[in-house]
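Students often ask why inverse folding is considered easier than folding. One informal answer: many sequences map to the same fold, so there is more than one right answer. In these notes we will look at a single instance of the problem. The structure comes first.
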């Protein structure tokens, strides 16, 4: 689903002996950096951390919604949700593959997630309590993901940028299906509308947290200078609020922020203070679902081990057969 711009690991700063004028010049010319190109070690490490954190978020993001596939209220909604959750798995795969081009193994990345060393987006540590949450996640969480990921299509690292182009197309479908689900609830019975409102009340603030700490509180990295990140956390958050408020009005839903109001002078919506204590508590393992999510992810990984081993054995057998038959032809 998406990378969160938090950074509670030590910053990967460029070292003096890491200076690479040719690389800096290529970045300044907006050239795409490819896997075999010369790049500073700190650039490589920053990308590995960001892309793998993004991949983990996609895969863990399958869990809160996956539990609703069997409870979807119609065949149509079940098909849509199945497709969406499957898309998220695909996003994880593109991203793990993109990270691997930087010289890290997938096993190492997955070990880091399972051991708790690597983070994923804190939004997935909130529970999905009602069917309306599936709509709200699509509308707000995938909506925030799009806001964050569209600029990544212009990221300086080629494999990441190219993965993002396809991911963004699919995220756009995710956002629309969520909005459509909520629109259906909001034009339904009073109970359905109340369920939608309750859901938005619970997800609004965590969605704003998805953009990460204020720019003034962010640990400095070279991500902006290196063209990995193109727009700051606060600017992305403001864009999201400005885009989302009219959509809430269209749905007839309120957003749970008494300070939310149009500021004609700024040409943007003003909004209230984010609870950063909650943000860090959830990032650092204190959310309602942190333990459940990791338990389920590790279990899914272990349960799927025999499938991966069988697929690898089958591929090895096919490869051996291909070699044997080509040798026969040669003989
Ligand atoms: Fe998504
Ligand atoms: Fe995704």
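Output (designed amino acids):
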């Amino acid at each position: 689903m998406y990378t969160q711009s938090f950074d509670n690991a030590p910053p990967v700063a460029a070292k003096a002996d890491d200076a690479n004028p040719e690389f800096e010049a290529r970045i300044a010319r907006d050239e795409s950096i490819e896997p075999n190109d010369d790049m500073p070690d700190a650039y490589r490490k920053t990308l590995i951390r960001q892309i793998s954190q993004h991949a983990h978020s996609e895969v863990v993001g399958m869990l809160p919604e996956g539990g609703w596939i069997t409870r979807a209220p119609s065949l149509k909604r079940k098909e849509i949700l199945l497709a969406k959750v499957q898309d998220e798995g695909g996003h994880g795969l593109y991203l793990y593959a993109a990270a691997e081009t930087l010289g890290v193994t997938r096993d190492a990345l997955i070990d880091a997630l399972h051991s708790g060393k690597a983070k994923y987006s804190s939004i997935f540590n909130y529970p999905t309590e009602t069917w309306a949450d599936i709509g709200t996640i699509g509308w707000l969480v995938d909506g925030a993901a799009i806001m964050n990921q569209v600029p990544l299509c212009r990221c300086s690292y080629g494999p990441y940028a190219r993965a993002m182009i396809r991911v963004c197309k699919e995220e756009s479908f995710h956002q629309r299906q969520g909005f459509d689900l909520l629109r259906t609830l909001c034009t339904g019975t009073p109970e359905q509308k109340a369920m939608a409102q309750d859901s938005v009340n619970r997800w609004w603030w965590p969605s704003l947290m998805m953009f990460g700490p204020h720019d003034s509180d962010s640990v400095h990295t070279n991500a902006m200078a290196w063209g990995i990140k193109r727009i700051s956390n606060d600017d992305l958050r403001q864009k999201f609020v400005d885009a989302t408020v009219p959509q809430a009005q269209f749905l007839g839903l309120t957003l749970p922020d008494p300070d939310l109001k149009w500021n004609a002078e700024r040409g943007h919506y003003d909004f209230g203070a984010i609870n950063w204590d909650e943000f860090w508590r959830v990032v650092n393992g204190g959310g309602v679902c942190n333990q459940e999510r990791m338990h389920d992810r590790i279990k899914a990984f272990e349960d799927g081990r025999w499938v991966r081993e069988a697929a690898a054995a089958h591929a090895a057998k096919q490869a051996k057969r291909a070699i044997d038959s080509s040798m026969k032809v040669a003989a």
